[in-house]
Amino acid sequence: MNWNVGPVIVYHAVKVRIYPTAAQAELLAKTLGCKRWIWKHWLEERETYFHEHGNTTGFKYTSAKILK
Predict the structure, then answer these.
(1) Whole-model pTM above 0.85?
(2) Are 26 and 34 in contact (CB under 8 A)?
(3) By C-alpha distance, which of 40, 39, 45 is closest to 62?
(4) Among candidates 42, 49, 50, 33, which has minimal Cα distance to 66?
(5) What is the pLDDT along the chain (68 residues), one digit of tens a residue?
(6) If we measure between CA atoms, which residue out of 39, 56, 38 comes closest to residue 47?
(7) Which of 6, 8, 35, 61 could join 57 in a cystine, given CB atoms 3.0 to 4.6 angstroms apart?
(8) 41 Ramachandran zone, left/alpha/beta (phi>0; psi -120 to 50)
């Protein structure tokens, strides 16, 4: 029997509660709103590409479109 199965990966999570000031809360809302918009935009781009071409895009394709 082979007991050498390789390294075991263990994931940990830390849950933290924050209490931002009003200015910090506004900045967080703006930042997370922008992040959400960017994520949804590029997800839609990838889905559209998949439906048109039948395969997925890669990192190079997405990066090239972002840098235009």
Answers:
(1) no
(2) no
(3) 45
(4) 42
(5) 566 777 888 899 999 999 999 999 999 999 999 999 999 999 999 999 999 999 988 888 888 888 87
(6) 56
(7) 61
(8) alpha
